[in-house]
Design brief:
heterodimer, A: alpha/beta, TIM Barrel, Alpha-Beta Plaits, 8-stranded parallel barrel, 4-stranded antiparallel beta sheet, 24 strands, 21% strand, B: Fumarate Reductase Iron-sulfur Protein, Chain B, domain 2, FAD/NAD(P)-binding domain, 5-stranded parallel beta sheet, 17 helices, 18% strand, globular
């Protein structure tokens, strides 16, 4: 069986599946259950400064978006950092780490943007025996209004400054958790690196309103007739997270910085995708909140099987394997020509490909009286919409035209030479082809 | 089980009230709202959907299912009822397994179609439970139309005509309306007096006068209707039944299955309805299955349906055949009745095995006798006596695509008219389409 152990910035864990800092990791009771279920690590729910604990709303904290059969696709929350006393959390963390020395225990921290505050709390937390820190610069609700969370994460200078304070306060690894509520993820990532961070973790949740109650005309979740934006997570945010992870993994300034991938990891495959795009491990929250801690068992068995079947011996060996294939649009091969192919044996004749192509694309699929759907190569631009709307997996596929064949749409012979926009004659800024 | 179960002869009370009630509950229980949403989620919203093409009334099935899925079942009901005003009953009695659900792409994909019939029932029940009638009459046209027969075809025509502003009088030979919905289908397909509820709801559009106990050729005649009304629609169904033409057919306890079903549907207390211990049903259609299954549910010990051809030739759908067998009814195929046994008191029915020779069905010398104390004939219904002016096509009133007969101003639809299957849903479509043609004619568009 493949070796799933990971060493992420010096923090060892038996598998790459950590629970993200969130409600599931708020206290000893949950974390012990998580470790018993098999989670490789836990980022403890964010600790705040000593003093009166934060308070949470007493109405709904979560809103949701559902797919077919009420499958939960997106979740948002307006919960704040831990509302339990600091000392209680520290005692519990100490006990748990002592009982589970092989698991990763990371302390998430958020205190006001003052040097003393950070330098006072970091060493105190380190006494629990935790394996590292994660700086919460991501929470988009509540704490941000008080100058913490994403309010810090949206200002690269603050990120760099606070990261530096923390690095000065501890020898343990410091991971900076990034907010996606920015225009360019590279700026905060670079700031974390410049501040000396050992790694970044991303994404935190996305500002969101999940729905509007049309009776009360209030956003959901609704508290006494009012709602506020909450942090969105779950399967729906995965594409956004994957892109941000990839951008950090492939950009010259941030390339090579360890990444803990977060954002809609629900199955082993999601985890493998994050890892392939450069994450050294993944953090999970919504999947556990939807299905319970047991989901990690499917993630472990699925990742192991896939690694075994593909000859991957360690997690480390697959980190970033897809990064070289992430490129800019201008470098995509314009000589690569594909056409949609419909398997008549697999077709169930629903006609969704026809409706999609006829109404909204390129009129490249015909429908006969007896409901046979066929691609017209002279119209097909290979947009892939038919593949995406077909309810039968692999019924419609994209076939690559071999070199020498004529593309009936353009009348041009397909070439196996690589050619992209930078050299295209229609590009006013094109450089001459070599 | 009561003491009467093994007593021979035709007798009431074979089962106690509790068991009979349990036996005659809804065949397809209604969805609750959660089940409906889950079931609706499976619809792919096909382009030019095959289910819609397969529906004789062309209900926009993908649209109404999407309306259920998005929390607007009342709108779904209106989508259904616009095409099929008896959508509530059709949801219960349509052989969906040979219509919309047979061609559902998820039947192709997984052998498990979207349950269109049950979804339709959810939508129509939701609306009708609120006692909402979603259509309004157009302003009155001053035209009068006579409709003969208050079955699915007649009611469908009457509603559409009334909606378009015409004044309609429905003449019905029986003391109440509904036609086969009320008298002709198995009780477990239409529970809680649904046919009458639906009739009352349909009439709430206004502009329809019901006259019961008035049969064509008796209280009314075609010439008198033509004289008194601007147009006439005939939807009186099939009033005669085919005979076996065997000696002893007039023996006691040899009867038509349609009469048995009608008696059963009109019975206030099913434990008071007599049924044999050993029942034989001859036929291969829905009526044979409805009679056989209900005989079993009333407590008959042995029920056998005997059909003269092979099982695949049965007019009853595969679902109906399975239902019969699930309920413990035995099917014997390739056997035709050749003798009714007993002298004045039915003791059995003798059959000869059949085979096809040179494309023709013939009986062989090999026979067997089923002991029986009750025999139901379900070998088809035919048109009763018709006004001479009407041209027939085979054994039905000849009509064109719009439902017009050879007599100007007279339309026909449903089982009495040529074309289409003898199904409730087909009758509804024909009544509706004839109404549209009548309207066009009366308003001078034709």
């Amino acid at each position: 069986m493949a070796d799933l152990t990971t060493n992420f910035v010096g923090i060892k864990s038996p598998n790459p599946f950590w629970l993200a800092s969130a409600p599931p990791t708020d206290k000893e009771y949950n974390v012990r259950r998580a470790f018993e279920a098999g989670w490789g690590g836990v980022v403890w729910k964010t600790l705040g400064a000593e003093g009166p604990p934060v308070v949470n709303v007493n109405g709904p904290r979560y809103g949701a978006v559902w797919g077919a059969d009420r499958r939960l696709l997106g979740l948002n929350n307006i919960e704040l950092i831990t509302d339990r006393p600091l000392s209680v959390n520290l005692e519990e963390m100490t006990r748990v780490k002592k009982d589970y020395p092989d698991r990763a225990l990371i302390a998430s921290v958020m205190v006001p943007c003052e040097e003393d505050a950070w330098k006072e709390i970091i060493p105190r937390i380190a006494e629990t025996g935790c394996d590292g820190f994660e700086l919460n610069f991501g929470c988009p609700h509540g704490m941000a209004e008080r100058g913490m969370g994403s309010a810090v994460g949206q200002v690269p200078e603050y990120i760099e400054m606070v990261t530096r304070w923390c690095k000065e306060a501890t020898d343990l690894p410091v991971i900076v958790k990034l907010t996606p509520n920015i225009t360019n993820i590279l700026n905060p990532a670079q700031a974390a690196k410049d501040g000396g961070a050992d790694a970044v973790s991303l994404i935190n949740t996305i500002n969101s309103i999940t729905s509007v109650n049309l009776d009360s005309m209030s956003p959901e979740p609704m508290i006494d007739g009012k709602g506020t934006h909450g942090g969105y997570c779950g399967p729906a945010v995965k594409p956004i997270a994957l892109n941000m992870v990839a951008e950090i993994a492939r950009s010259s300034g941030t390339r090579g910085m360890p990444i803990s991938g977060i954002g809609g990891v629900t199955t082993w495959r999601d985890a493998a995708e994050f890892i392939a795009l450069g994450a050294g491990n993944v953090q999970v929250c919504t999947a556990a909140m939807t299905y319970g801690f047991k989901v990690v068992q499917e993630m472990i068995s699925g990742l192991s099987q896939w690694m075994d079947e593909n000859g991957h011996t360690s997690v480390e060996s697959i980190v970033g394997r897809a990064v070289p294939n992430v490129t800019d649009w201008q470098y995509l091969n314009l000589n690569h020509v594909t056409k949609a192919r419909i398997s008549q044996d697999d077709c169930i004749k629903c006609g969704r490909c026809f409706a999609a192509c006829e109404d909204t694309s390129h009129q490249a699929i015909t429908m006969s009286e007896d409901r046979v759907f066929e691609v017209q190569d002279d119209e097909c631009v290979a947009c892939n919409l038919c593949v995406n709307v077909c309810p039968v997996e692999n019924c419609i596929t994209m076939e690559t035209l071999p070199a020498g064949m004529v593309d009936e749409r353009t009348g041009k012979t397909v070439s196996d030479d690589y050619a992209n926009w930078t050299t295209h004659p229609n590009n006013p800024g094109a450089t001459a082809a070599e | 089980m009561t003491r009467h179960i093994r007593e021979s002869g035709v007798r009431a009370g074979r089962l106690d009230t509790e068991n009979v009630q349990a036996n005659f509950t809804d065949l397809h229980p209604p969805y609750d709202p959660h089940e409906a949403v889950v079931a609706a989620d499976r619809c792919y919203f096909c382009h030019d959907a095959p289910c819609m093409t397969a529906c004789p009334t062309s209900i926009d099935i993908p649209l109404f299912i999407r309306q259920i899925a998005t929390g607007t079942p009342d709108a779904a009901a209106k989508t259904i009822l616009e095409q099929n005003i008896l959508g509530g009953m059709c949801a219960r009695v349509c052989p969906t397994e040979t219509l919309c659900e047979e061609v559902c792409v998820r039947e192709t994909a997984e052998g498990k179609p979207v349950e269109i019939g049950r979804l339709q029932r959810f939508a129509t029940d939701t609306l009708m439970d609120k006692d909402v009638h979603p259509f309004e009459r157009a302003s009155e046209t001053g035209k009068k139309v006579a409709v003969v027969g208050a079955g699915p075809a007649g009611l469908s025509a009457a509603h559409r005509l009334a909606m378009l502003g015409h004044n309609v009088v429905v003449f019905e030979s029986r003391p109440k309306g509904g036609g086969l919905n009320e008298f002709g289908i198995a009780a477990y397909k239409s529970t809680n007096d649904f046919a009458q509820q639906e009739l009352d709801w349909l009439l709430s559009i206004g502009g329809i006068e019901m006259r019961y106990g008035q049969a064509l050729g008796d209280a009314i005649s075609l010439p008198s209707l033509q004289q008194d009304f601007d147009a006439v629609f005939l939807g009186m169904g099939l009033s005669a039944v085919n005979a076996l033409s065997l000696d002893g057919e007039d023996t006691a306890n040899v009867s038509d299955a349609v009469s048995f079903i009608s008696d059963l549907r009109q019975a206030d207390d099913l434990t008071a309805l007599p049924i044999g211990r050993r029942v034989v049903v001859i036929g291969g259609g829905m009526t044979a299955v409805d009679a056989g299954v209900q005989a079993k549910l009333l407590g008959a010990e042995d029920v056998t349906i005997v059909y003269r051809r092979g099982q695949s030739a049965m007019a009853a759908s595969a679902f109906e055949q399975d239902l019969a067998q699930q309920k413990g009814v035995r099917l014997i195929c390739n056997a035709a009745p050749v003798g009714i046994e007993g002298h004045g008191k039915l003791t059995g029915v003798t059959f000869a095995y059949t085979e096809v020779q040179g494309g023709k069905l013939v009986t062989t010398d090999e026979t067997f006798t089923l002991p029986a104390d009750q025999l139901f004939k379900a070998i088809g219904q035919t048109l009763g006596d018709m006004p001479e002016a009407l041209t027939l096509a085979g054994r039905k009133i000849s009509v064109d695509d719009a439902g017009q007969t050879n007599v100007p101003g007279v339309w026909a639809g449903g089982d009495c008219a040529s074309g289409g299957d003898d199904l409730t849903v087909t009758a509804v479509a024909e009544g509706r389409d004839a109404a549209m043609d009548i309207h066009a004619t009366l308003m001078g568009a034709n």
